[in-house]
Amino acid sequence: MSAFSHQDRIVAPSVLAADFGRIAEECSRAIKSGGDWLHLDVMDGHFVDNISFGPAMVAAIHATNDIFLDVHLMIDRPDHYFPRFVEAGADMISVHVEADHEVASTLQAIRDAGCQCGLAFNPATPLEAVEPFLGQVDLLLCMTVVPGFGGQAFMTEVMPKVEEAARLRTAGGYQFHIEVDGGIDPQTAPHAAAAGANVFVAGSSTFKAPDMSAAVTAIRQA
Ligand code: DX5
Ligand code: ZN
């Protein structure tokens, strides 16, 4: 379990950008480079136009280390599939508000299963869509690209939603993390940090950097 609070800067390298043929070494490299969490992107080919990996990969990664596993489900029926990710060793499970499920009950069920729960929303989705659930979540995942693929450009236009989410968190006395995901690198992270984000998912800019430690440090210090 994570001892981190929303006042901590957390860097979560996204394994989607790792070399899948050497996944155990890649995860160790991310941890040695200072990654605080590992971000694991699960895609079903329906909710997004890509297929990544499922619970077997999460379990394999869990078996190699004890870092906090931040699982991002980009799938249509998170209510049906999330228990398999709990079983696989997830510490945090985030589901999309746009997916086909009863959001409040899925979040509660994840919590009841002993996991932290997160709610994700796409760049085009207004903050109002997630607002009713803010009292229920450990993390709010603000997509800063249209989900589906790594290596896309950061969307600055999402920052007003991050600012407003941070304001609602203070107003409501909530403690949830605000995570940004997509196009995060040492240049874009400062914008997200200024808006109020504290968890920085970074795939291409960490795993594909010439010096992964330097990249992780630069993002954390942004
Ligand atoms: C995008 C995924 C991201 C992705 C980010 O659909 O949710 O987590 O791995 O990749 P980069 O950091 O390369 O934009
Ligand atoms: Zn993600």
How is this fold's topology laid out?
Blueprint: E1 10-13, H1 23-32, E2 37-43, H2 55-64, E3 68-74, H3 78-88, E4 92-96, H4 103-112, E5 116-121, E6 139-143, H5 159-172, E7 177-181, H6 189-195, E8 199-202, H7 204-207, H8 212-220
Parallel strand pairs: 1-8, 2-3, 3-4, 4-5, 5-6, 6-7, 7-8
The structure holds D-xylitol-5-phosphate and zinc ion.
Structural overview:
The chain is an alpha/beta fold. The chain has one domain (10-221): Aldolase class I (TIM Barrel), CATH 3.20.20. It has 8 helices and 8 strands. The chain has helices spanning 23-32, 55-64, 78-88, 103-112, 159-172, 189-195, 204-207, 212-220, and strands at residues 10-13, 37-43, 68-74, 92-96, 116-121, 139-143, 177-181, 199-202. It has an 8-stranded parallel sheet. Helix 4 links the parallel strand 4 and strand 5. It starts with 9 loop residues before the first strand and ends with a helix. The model has no long low-confidence stretch (mean pLDDT 97). The structure holds D-xylitol-5-phosphate (DX5) and zinc ion. Zinc ion is lined by residues 14, 39, 41, 72, 181, 201. D-xylitol-5-phosphate (DX5) is lined by residues 14, 16-17, 39, 41, 72, 145, 147-152, 181-184, 201-205.
